Structure formats: C-alpha cells, structure tokens
Amino acid sequence: MPRPLVATIDVAALRANLAVAKKCAPNSKVLAVVKANAYGHGLMHAIRGFAAADGLGLIEFDGAVQLRETGWQKPILLLEGVFEPADLATVIEYRLEVVVHCIEQVEMIEQAGIASAIDVHLKMNTGMNRLGFKPEAFRAAYVRMRALGFIRNITLMTHFANADNATHAALTLSEQVRRFNSATEGLPGLRSLSNSAADLLHPEVAADWVRPGIMLYGGSPGDKSAAEFGLLPAMTLASAIIGIQDVSAGDAVGYGSLFVADKAMKIGVVACGYADGYPRHAPTGTPIVVDGVRTRLVGRVSMDMIMVDLTPVPHARVGSAVTLWGADLPIDEVAHAAGTIGYELMCGLAQRVRITAQ
Ligand SMILES: *Cc1c(COP(=O)(O)O)cnc(C)c1O
Hints:
Layout: E1 6-9, H1 11-24, E2 29-33, H2 35-39, H3 43-46, E3 55-58, H4 61-69, E4 76-78, H5 87-93, E5 97-100, H6 103-111, E6 118-124, H7 135-146, E7 151-158, H8 173-184, E8 191-194, H9 196-201, E9 209-210, E10 235-247, E11 252-253, E12 259-260, E13 265-271, E14 287-290, E15 293-298, E16 305-309, E17 321-325, H10 331-337, H11 342-347, E18 354-357
Parallel strand pairs: 1-18, 2-3, 2-9, 3-4, 4-5, 5-6, 6-7, 7-8, 8-9
Antiparallel strand pairs: 1-10, 10-13, 10-17, 11-12, 13-16, 14-15, 14-17, 15-16
Helix pairs in contact: 7-8
C-alpha cells in the first residue's frame, strides 16, 4: 500500500482556467507560465491542459528541452534567458526563445556567432527593479540586438510589481505602463506585459501577449478569491487519517505541546507534513477537510504528519479521507492561515508526493 498522500491534477480545470485567461484578453496570445514544474503540478501533466496556449514560459532548461522532445511545437520562452554562453547551443538546438534582461546577456549573444535565427524578448525594468534594462537604456539594447543579423523577432516586455493593487503609494501599474509605452514608442515588435493579476484585473493593458501563471492553476493573484474570478482549483492534495488519539482536558498534542485540549476530544493523525510541502508555520486553526467536513489543524506541523481536531467529524476513523487543499478547500485559505500565498504551497509540493492527473 503506498502512503495515501496524493496530489491529483484536474486537467479539465487547467483547461477551463486557460479559457478564463483568454477570455480576459481576447485579442492577446497567451503564454502559459509553467516554471517550477508547472507551479508544482508536474510539467507533463500541466501541458495536457494547455494545448490551446500560444506558447509556454519557464525558467528551467531541462523542462524546456523536455517540452520540445515530447512534441510541443509552439514557442517556448526562457523567462530568465541564458546564464552562460554555452546555454545558447541549447537555445538553438531546441528552438527556444530567450528573455534578454541585462547587458551581459546581450554580450553573450553578440559573441556567440549564432548561425540560425533566434527570437528574443527584451525586458524593461519599469520600476520593479528585478530584471530588465532601465527605460533610458532600453533603446540602446534594442539597437544592439537589432544589429545582429541572426535575431529574428524582438518582443518588448516588462513585468508588473503591483498589478493586484491599483493605488500603491510607491509604484502603480499605470505608472509602469506609462514608462514602458514612453520608452518603447515607435519601436517595432510585439508587446508582452500582463501576469495573472493584470490579466484578471486590468484587461485594458493586455498587449500582444499575456503571461498568466497562478490563475491557470486555480490560485488567486489578489485579494479576491479564485472562485470569484471564476477559477477552478487544479491541484487537490489529499491524504488519509492514519491514527487516532483520544485525549482528555489538559493533554497536549505534538512537538512543543503547542496545543492543549480544553476538553476530551479525538485527534486525527494525517499522513502529510512539512517534508511533503505542507507549510510548517500553519498554526492551530488552519482549515482542513476530513471526510468532507471542515475542521482544523491542531498543534505543530511535523515532518511527516499533522494532527487535526475530529470533534466535528465523530465518525472519522483510520482511513478517512483528508483534503489538505484543492477541490473542497481553497489553497489560498490554507496559505493565508500559514502566512504565505498559494503560489508557495503549490511550488513547494515535495518530490516524494505522488502526482496523478485525471
Ligand atoms: C512567473 C511569471 C509570470 C506569471 O506570474 P503569475 O503571477 O503567476 O501570473 C509572468 N511573467 C513572468 C516574467 C514571470 O516570471
């Protein structure tokens, strides 16, 4: 019997979420972002839901190569581009597209003596101050790339820092758009701007490409719930009760004895812990579903197990089904309780957790 902890990927939900992304940006092409093993869903499972995407974007070279080898024909964009000159051989062999975000990458490409045509996405730093050329340096980088005979298309891109917050004091989406438009005025090339939050909340800035990630997996990029955006959870992390303890008032549960029962109660032990990717900082009270009934985690998350309050589920027994997050428990609620975001929980799913798709 394998351990009961399984992540089940709902391919139809991935497909439906992609349709939401397209519907928000009907005149844009959609680059489905599949970095970090498709946000933990398993790259090969996820692309079954993304056949209608116009391209795929990721960071990892091995994933990009695997996508080509399994027959993905449309664009594959490396979102951090190349890290060293030798990477360009892989880019050419597998017809990958690359982000170019710094002068060192321009130099690597200039010096590579590339024979075949490549497509690049030139990235502007419009205020996030992560990757990209400053607006005032962008045009010079563009001209240098354009001067190379083997560069075919140059897509112009930037990334938003606060697409989920229209009134941020330090930087707004509209200010980033203004800087981008002003610095790219008159430059030929397609434009690529929006992440999930911008796609959902600012359809007016959708350009030639949108680059949704989290929304495709049924996570919310903002304060509204995923359900309010019409998104479906694509990953359900489920396990089972593997042990039950009867405790009396005053008895403590788990490492550090963080939870002390105030009455006689049943405690269920669930096969899932932080070594599986469950957030160690999830406190007592974090929602969890046992046998279809919502209850709460109690005590400290341990490496392989968590404990739950079975008071609302008196019929629960060893073998009862548990949902950690997914179909009947939004991942964003669990993340919020643990002081993190759905992104981190999805991406943090550990290697030892079996993934199946349906
Ligand atoms: C990860 C990423 C995205 C997707 O962001 P979400 O918030 O998950 O939609 C888009 N563009 C770039 C450059 C990224 O790195």
